[in-house]
Amino acid sequence: MQIKSKNKENKIVFLDNAAGSFPKAPGVAKAILAYINDVGVNVGRASYAPASAAALTMLELRESLCRLFNFGHSEACIITPGATFALNLVLKGYLKPGDHVIVSPLEHNAMMRPLNQLATHGISFDRLPADENGLVEASAILPLIKPNTKMIAMLHASNVCGSVLPISQIGQICAAKNIPFLVDASQSAGHIDIDMQAMHISALAVPGHKGLLGPSGIGALLMQPDFAASVEPLVTGGTGSQSDSEVQPLHLPDRFEAGTQNLPGIYGFKAALDFIEKESITALQKQQNDLAVRFIEGILNIPAVRLVGPTKVDKRVGVISLDFQKHDNAEAAYLIERSYGIFTRCGLHCAPNAHKTLGTYPQGTVRFSLGWHNTKEDIDAALEAIATVSK
Question: Which of 375, 99, 89 lies closest to 232 in space, CA to CA?
Answer without folding.
Answer: 89
